[in-house]
Amino acid sequence: MRNKVIAVGAIVFIAYVIGARASRVQVKNRESVGHQVVRLWNDPCARKRRHKAAKKAAAAAEKRAKKTMRQLRK
What we know:
- The protein is built from three helices and no strands.
- The protein is flat and about 70 Å long.
- It has one domain.
- The model has no long low-confidence stretch (mean pLDDT 87).
- By secondary structure, the protein is mainly α.
- The longest helix is centred in the C-terminal third of the chain and has 30 residues.
């Protein structure tokens, strides 16, 4: 039983270490933070996500405004 507990503990520890290392941001050598921000801002996938989020926010704001106007008219 003791060996099973040690084995499970070792597996959990290894999984934690691997997971913790995988989520770190990979920074290129001598790349400044400002350059990283510019590179991420110009990323095509990020542009699509920003555009999609802006459209979704605008639609939600318009829907909320219509609902508020309906409530005020009552």
